[in-house]
Amino acid sequence: MNTSASAFQIHADDNVATLLADVADSAEVRITGEGQGTSISAANPIRSGHKIALQLIPEGEPVLKYGFPIGRATRAIAAGEWVHLHNCASNFDAKSSSLDLVSGARPETRYA
Predict the structure, then answer these.
(1) Are the CB atoms for 59 and 87 separated by under 8 Å?
(2) What residue spans define the domains of the chain?
(3) How confident is the model at residue 37 (pLDDT cuts 50, 70, 90)?
(4) Which whole-number Å values give the CA distances from 67 to 3, 5, 28, 59, 80, in the listed order?
(5) CA–CA separation, 48 and 75 (whole Å)
(6) pLDDT confidence of residue 91
(7) Is the separation of the CB atoms in 24 and 4 below 8 Å?
(8) Residue 70 — left, alpha, or beta (φ > 0 → left; ψ -120 to 50 → alpha)?
(9) Environment class of residue 71 by beta-carbon count within 10 Å: exposed (0-12), middle (13-18) or buried (19+)?
(10) How would you classify the pairing of strands 23-33 and 2-9?
(11) Within 13 Å and on the Cβ side, how many CA atoms surround 75?
(12) Which of 34, 46, 66, 83 is the most exposed, fewest CB within 10 Å of its CB?
């Protein structure tokens, strides 16, 4: 994992950005796109393509990406924290919080 990387903020209202490379715990993340010129420290390791919180997102508040609420925080999410199924419920898939964090598979899915 990198000790520094970039993340892309799509819309100025977004409270998350998408990582462009894997980052290690405490890595400095430069924000590009609408957040150009800012940075944040990763609160935990985060994989490329996943979301990082740009600010505190209180429990129950919307997670904004594309300037649009894509979900809601199921617990308070600290600035710099990985935003994923363990702390965000999708507005589009009611079962999203029960999916496997790594594979995204539903719990009833079995592989031979």
Answers:
(1) no
(2) 2-98
(3) confident
(4) 28, 23, 24, 19, 19
(5) 23
(6) 78
(7) no
(8) alpha
(9) buried
(10) parallel
(11) 9
(12) 66
- What the block records as the tokens of 94 is 């009611």
Rounded Cα distance, 15 and 65, in Å: 7
Q: Per-residue pLDDT averaged across 67-96, rounded?
A: 88
Q: And the tokens for 2?
A: 């990198």
Q: Rounded CA gap, 80 and 95, in Å?
A: 25
pTM of the entire predicted model:
0.82
Query: May I ask the CATH class of domain 2-98?
Result: mainly beta
Mean pLDDT of 104-110: 61
Task: For residues 44 and 52, give the distance between their C-alpha atoms in angstroms, rounded to a whole number.
Answer: 10
Contacts of 93 (CB under 8 A, 6+ apart): none
